[in-house]
Amino acid sequence: xxxxxHANAVIxxxxxxxxxxxxxxxxxxxxxxxAVRGRTCLIVLCSDDLNLLQRFDMTPxxxxxxxxxxxxxxxxxxxxxxxxPKEADIWSREQLEHYIAASAMARIYSxxxxxxxxxxxxxxxxAAPASTSSFTGAIGDQMLPVRITxxxxxxxxxxxxxxxxxxxxxxxxxxxxRGEANYKGKMVSFDDEGSGWVNAINGLETDFGDAAPVxxxxxxxxxxxxxxxxxxxxxxxxxxxxxxxxxxxVRIKTTSGDAIFAEEKEFRPSPDNIEITVExxxxxxxxxxxxxxxxxxxxxxxxxxxxxxxxxCEVF
Length: 316
Description:
Layout: H1 3-19, E1 23-26, E2 33-37, E3 40-46, H2 50-58, E4 61-65, E5 68-71, E6 73-77, E7 89-90, H3 93-109, E8 141-143, H4 150-157, E9 163-177, E10 180-183, E11 186-189, E12 192-199, E13 205-206, E14 214-216, E15 223-224, H5 231-246, E16 248-256, E17 259-267, E18 274-289, E19 294-298, E20 304-305, E21 314-315
Parallel strand pairs: 3-6, 4-21, 6-7, 9-15
Antiparallel strand pairs: 1-2, 2-3, 4-5, 8-14, 9-12, 9-18, 10-11, 12-13, 16-17, 18-19, 19-20
C-alpha cells in the first residue's frame, strides 16, 4: 500500500469511528488517530512499515480520562504480509469495506451503529472438516486440505472472536542426491533423498511430517498471501543447505611399519549431483481474533502457532 492509500484509509476509519460515537483527533505520530468514547480510548495506525507496526503493537499506550489513567485499545490497517500482532486488532480490506458501508447506511437512515457487530470476513465452511467440497473455483492449486473447522480453531486458540482463513504459500521441495568420493581406498557415498517445506514469506523451514500436497481450489473468501521469497532463491538456498548437510568428515587410518597414522578429511558432494524440484503449496491457517490476542491455528494439523510477545509503555 502507498502513502495515499494510508491517508485515505485514515479519513475513512475516522468517519467510521465518528459514526460509532467516538470523538476523534488526528495525531502526528507514532500513530494516526486517537478516538475516545466514554471511558474507552482507541488509537489507530495505518502503515506497512514493519518496525513501526511492531513498535506500535508492543507498546501499551495510556491516556488520562477524568483523572483516571486508561489503557488504550489499538487498531491497525496494513498490507504488510509479515506482520503478526500480539495485542492490536487488524482490519483487513474486506473488514474496512464492511464498516465503511455499514456506517454510511447508518448515517443515511439515522440508525445506530457500533463496531462490535460480527464481521462479514468470518469464514464458515459448510462441508465436513476433511472435505474440500466447500472450495469454489477451478481446481488447480497445490495445497494442504482444510481439516480443522473454524469452530475447532476457536476452541484450540481459547479465544472468542471472528476467524479468518489465510492461505500461506510454502515452497515444497523434493531432492535426490547421487555420487561418491574415493580416497586411499575409502569410499564415501552421497546418495540421499527427501523432501521439505520452506515458508515462502519468512523463509523458515517447517516440518509437516508425512503431509503430501493435493490439487484443490482456494476458498473465494480466504485471505491469500503472496510469496516474498522466489522459487529460484529457495532452490539455491536448499541446494546450499543440502551440500552442507551431506558433507561428511571421515577419519582415515593408514599404517607404515609399526606406526599408525590417522587423518581427517572432509568430503563435499557436488551441487550438480543434487536434483531438486520445487512447487508452491498453500497451507491453510485459521486466524482467530480475540479481544486482546490474535491466535493462529494450522487448519491442516490443528497446531496452535506461536506469536511474539514484547512489553513496553508510553503515555500520551
